[in-house]
Amino acid sequence: MKLALFDLDHTLLNTDSDHSWGEFLVNEGLVDPVRHSQMNDKFYDDYKAGQLDPIAYNEFVFEFLTQHDNAYLIELHELFMEKVIRRQMRPEGFKAIQHHREAGHALVGITATSDFITAPIFREFGITEIIATNAEVINGKYTGKVVNVPCYQKGKLTRLDQWLEGRNVTESWAYSDSINDRFLLEYADHAIAVNPDDRLEILAKDQGWDIQDWSI
To answer: What are the beta bridge partners of residue 6?
Structure first.
């Protein structure tokens, strides 16, 4: 199997879907605007600094999911797609996905963001194999807890190893914007830094990795 791995936030998207979801909830008047904005911004700053506590952050995000039924959450996510996400989907991302699809490569979306937020977005990009931080669901209801290893930093490799069990990869590509994904990029045979943050840009140049501009 030849494998193409795609990060989502600031890679395929021109925004961070997790942070944008929090802003969306505030703008729709669905959460306490002061508390939610402050916590959302703090966790986002932690992520950019490479210091995020992925359990604490995702449990903060999942609080809202525990308060509503799935039918409403699905409807709300579609509104989020319509109002926020679709305009941020990068054409160059679609092109890269299509290139790997035409080459017969397996396509996998891999993200630190939760499966609730990201799975519909990846599917709209045409990616159905998704490795994300998983929200626990019991009897059809979100519990507010994270299950499995958070898909963040080295956790992405742990989760990828779980997904790859029984599969043999002969060649791989990985696309990401963030220094948080250095381990994923180092794993791949072909690392592509997409609009990299400052620290990843330095690393990419040092390692001779491909640097691409997908901004819109």
So the answer is: 109, 175
Confidence at residue 47, expressed as pLDDT on a 0 to 100 scale: 85
Amino acid identity for residue 55 in this structure? I
In 10 A of CB 61, how many CB atoms?
Answer: 24
SS3 of residue 116 by DSSP: helix
29 in the Ramachandran plot: left (φ > 0), alpha (ψ -120 to 50) or beta? left
Burial class (CB in 10 A: 0-12, 13-18, 19+), 197: middle
> Residue 40: is its pLDDT beyond 90?
no
Which residues pair with residue 3 across a beta bridge?
Answer: 106, 172
Amino acid at the residue 134: N
Query: DSSP code of 89?
Result: B
pTM confidence score:
0.94
Residues recognised as catalytic: 7, 9
11 has a pLDDT exceeding 80: yes
Number of domains in the chain: 1
Strand order in the sheet with 106-114: 141-147, 129-138, 106-114, 2-6, 171-176, 190-194, 210-212
Range of the domain at 44: 2-212
Tokens 């080459």 sit on residue:
103
Q: In this predicted structure, which of 49-58, 149-158, 173-182 has the lowest mean pLDDT?
A: 49-58
CATH number, position 191: 3.40.50.1000
